Amino acid sequence: SRIYKIGIKKLILTHPLLIKSVKRNFPDIDIIVSVFAEVDNLEKLKYFESLGVSRITLPHELNRNLPLLKKFVEATGMELEVIANLSCVHYCARSDFHCMYVGHSDRAILARSAGDYYVNWCDSFRINRPWEILSSDFIRPEDVYRYEEIGIEYLKIAGRATSTSWIIRAVNAYLQREFRGNLFELLTQCYPY
Questions:
Q1: How would you list the strands of the sheet with 154-156, edge to edge?
Q2: pLDDT tens-digit profile of 158-193?
Q3: How far is the C-alpha of 167 from the C-alpha of 40, rounded, in Å?
Q4: What angle do CA 117, 121, 127 make, to 5 degrees?
């Protein structure tokens, strides 16, 4: 209740029981369902909608499946969000673990662990299979309109382990719907440490 008293009106949550508890005790707080809930089908979408959430961050593996994303939009009145700049290997078996590692680390830990196990694995994998970069789940800034056309109005920019200047550059590229530079400079797995 302390966060409510200081004016927090929006939370990003994953666990359904926690979502239910917050909605029961603080019904006017908007809840965004985290990408970690892996809402990748209409049944899960409807379930989280029934909990009273206002937005869902969809799994990045769905980014290139515009027909499915359009079905999601048509099936709900909730806001839907996609992550624009992840260059993770499509359906990577290590992705969730890497995201949890980053999500539970502070900047000091991340700065010391630039060569963490997951980054090392990705780098090695891509050296041996460079085409995986092109099949990863990123959205080019020039393609933002395709998502807007089907009703997705929210793009999330990943990069919590990056500098503020890096984040600003990525945000500006997606806001401007173009980037006249090396696309890898906007993608999370490819940023310089």
A1: 10-13, 30-33, 55-57, 79-83, 154-156
A2: 887 778 898 999 999 999 999 999 988 898 865 443
A3: 27
A4: 145
